[in-house]
# Entry
Amino acid sequence: MDLQANVLRQLKNRREGFSLEQPFYIDQDYFKLDMEMIWYRDWLFIGHDCEIPRAGNYFTAQIGDYPVVIVRGKDQAIRAFHNTCRHRGHRVCTKDKGAAAKLVCPYHNWTYDLDGSLVFARQMGETFDKAEFGLKTVHCESVGGYIFVCLANEAPDFAPMRASIEPYLAPHRLWEAKVAHKNTIIEKGNWKLVWENNRECYHCASNHPELCRTYPEAPTATGVQGAGDDPFISEHWARCEAAGLPSAFNMDPTGQFRTARMPLIQDAESYTMSGQRAVKKPLSADVPISHIGTMLLFHYPTTWNHILGDHAISFRVLPLSAEETAVTTTWLVNKDAVEGVDYDLEELTHVWNMTNDQDRSIVEENAFGIRSPAYEPGPYSVDHEGGVMQFVEWYSNFMTGRLQGDKARLSVVA
# Structure
């Protein structure tokens, strides 16, 4: 049977409330279909404005087969380009990050301005027109200090997401924060397993002792529909919103992105072993109260986030293969906070470094089990894994729509 027809059949016949069939987690052809139908067509979180604060600052990323570079121009605009020289395809920017007055391909020194236009190509003849060979652009949008890119020729409308999440992000002024620390781990499991693990805390008590010192195990804590029925959470929302901080659960109708400001345990203010703030300087002067909990932002398929009073943590998911996923964690603090004076880096990063490593182990053991010929889809806990069920439903609906709408045609990227 044709692959895409088979995938469509499996998704339509999926047993609601159960995990997916084995190929969705381990098969390379299914993985390629995920990339074509989702990752090469939709908006993806790629990094933060504050990572490129000045003109000429750039960073690079690999999205499946596509290397991209994100750069701040002389006009302060943030742009994204395919990181492929228009001469013979060499990567123009070969480092993870850097700063340059112009982007120069190291192969033959073709030189591009920060707006992507080709300004120098040595000895290409009198008829050569530089205007025809600028870097190919990638759709790029910035909202609340978060940069999103889309590889498709025609990007989905970004306006609904901007309208939904910008009010929640704005008080934290993340566009003017600074990166205190950033690291990437490779989890040997499918990207959907990474997300399924993230979307529940059913496993937290037995696997995350450090996180559980401040983060409640209650199913509502992961930001799900019905969280407002909990009086403790509804009181937290009312208190924060009275201080000008949008807080109530808000989810896009498709289920692709959501925001909610959730309380931490008791008097905890931050993800530290003590529950006390990790950073002396508040993240933003626009947040007038303490004990604001964590502002959760989820956007499938690339990011989940925790934004607190003293710092913020973003997580970026990028698939590497059917059974490998890169998870990049970035800690953001006030731009004027000084390491060793205002915060201790070990204290700031300890809880999530431990939690990330624990999650890596969980995902990898999950992947081991799924490879077994004995594996078959199992039931999710209605009480604890509503977030997982919602993610799998989003994935199934999203893929079904793409497969039916495109009649098995693959995407065309710029």
User: Anything to note?
Assistant: Residues 11 and 396 are 6 Å apart (CA to CA). The two ends are 30 Å apart (CA to CA).
